[in-house]
Protein 1
Amino acid sequence: MKKHWLLGASAALVLSTLPINGSPAIAQIFNAGSTIAQNVLRQPKVNLHLVADQQVVTKQQGKEVIRWQPIDGNVKAKQGDLIRFTVTGKNEGSRDARNVAITQPIPQGTIYQLNSATIAQAITVTYSIDQGKTFVVQPTVKVTLPNGKVEERPAPAAAYTHVRWETSQTLQPDAIVSAAYQVKIR
């Protein structure tokens, strides 16, 4: 959106420096600035909503039953508990949203649960182990072996700092996209 705003500002700047003599060029510049402003107002607006649920495991007739309880002021999470975060994005604009990316940090005091990020059709999940500076599908770390040799190995779950979901498909107005991941309380 800043790009469009800057174009609108440029059009206004050009308009203010040209002499007003009724030429069609001035009218075109003015109309271009107006069109740009209208386009900015119609840009896609994807609002995000985050929900957290705590995994509750009970036994019924000798079998474990897993359910997810919404976290509110009454839920007490303790070390080892699993929490599922679900983020939902809705395109509240009047145009298609393109290249939608949803990035969520792994909360402090938790460890990402490997392979828990949900993947829908045409969505790519990437991860960061450097506080969201870079994202890759399979993070690796360099490990120095006892013999001094350095190898790249899969990053441990505790190294993950962010999860990102990206889609190349468009998100139409009023369309919803949802993604989830799990963490364990340290």
Protein 2
Amino acid sequence: MYAVFEDGSRQYRVSEGELVRLDYRDLDPGSRLEFDKVLLISAGEGLQIGRPYIAGARIVAEVVDHPSTKLYIQHFRRRKNYRRRIGHKQLFTTVKISRILLPGQEAPSEEPVGAASQSS
């Protein structure tokens, strides 16, 4: 099962359990995030295509981390005494896709980790 959703000006093809790198969002790691602009869902042999979006379909994700690395761009022209070094750090958010919900499905309620049902 996979889905295509839109976030900002980009489209992402995802499946459950996949890690996706999105534009930066100021959210704490572990917080829940939902995307409702679902363009396409492929479940088994069925394929649903939205016009432009599938009404009621959602993708539930969990924020994993906010990693960032600095990229260095270096310009050099030989024999001209020209050297330039520029750094750029792009912020982004890594999320893990928890569930792909079809129209009419509800997300399960969130239980704390390690809270198992106890029988007395």
Protein 3
Amino acid sequence: MSKTTTALLVLLLLIAKPAHVAAGPWEEGYAAYQRKDYTLAVEKWRVVAQAGKAEAQSLLGQMYFFGQGVKQDYPQAITWLRLAAAQGEAKAQFKLGAMHENGQGFTRDNMRAAIWYTLAAKQGHPQANDALQLVSAGLSPKESALASRLAQTCIKRAFKDCESVFSP
């Protein structure tokens, strides 16, 4: 290999892989969460969530739900989870279903739980089908059919303003 070729290869490697790549708030939040530094994770993920990243919004909602790094606050959890769910985030949709089913931040409502579980299941959430079957056991066939229809309407709307269609 000639000296020119070797020099070009070294130059390309230096350009292609900088010696120090700074982590962004998403990665910093993840690292903080892994260390159980939940306050820092919330701080970092809030930046990403406010920029509109659905996964960060969902995680922030979960942290408010469990009181990790913040005071437990169901209304704040619901706010962040709804933002993520409106972007099709299955984990947020599943959590909203569970919150409706268990009356956490909402009045218990198995119909709404079934709708959210249906949405999460349609997107492959691993626990949504089982949760949907359990909650649907307490619904009449008419209610189950309505929940399915309302979920389909939400899907057709690309998850935008879903809750406006939830009122039968």
Protein 4
Amino acid sequence: MSRKAVLASTARFEKRPIASLKDLGEAQAYLEVALEGYEQTGETEGLLLALRDVAEAQGGVGELARRAGVNREHLYRVLSNRSNPRMDNLLAIISGLGFRVRLEPQRVPVQ
């Protein structure tokens, strides 16, 4: 999902200060939209944008690096638009933001 598509899907965060993403409920809703976009398209740009936005709201990438236990410079590279992050990096970032990944069944149409 492109940056433009994520911003269109999450326009309410563009209009409000990024500080609203300090609230875990707001941050969760924002990240879920970005993750759904990634699931649909396979493009990481929107998901990385959302992770950067939440990191910024929660004290910045440096603070996230400390909480996630990763090198700050490495984290900047992982969150760049040119990155294709590994699963272990994504899980560390998500955990550092105060979340965890859970599995749920896909909605499969009954035939």
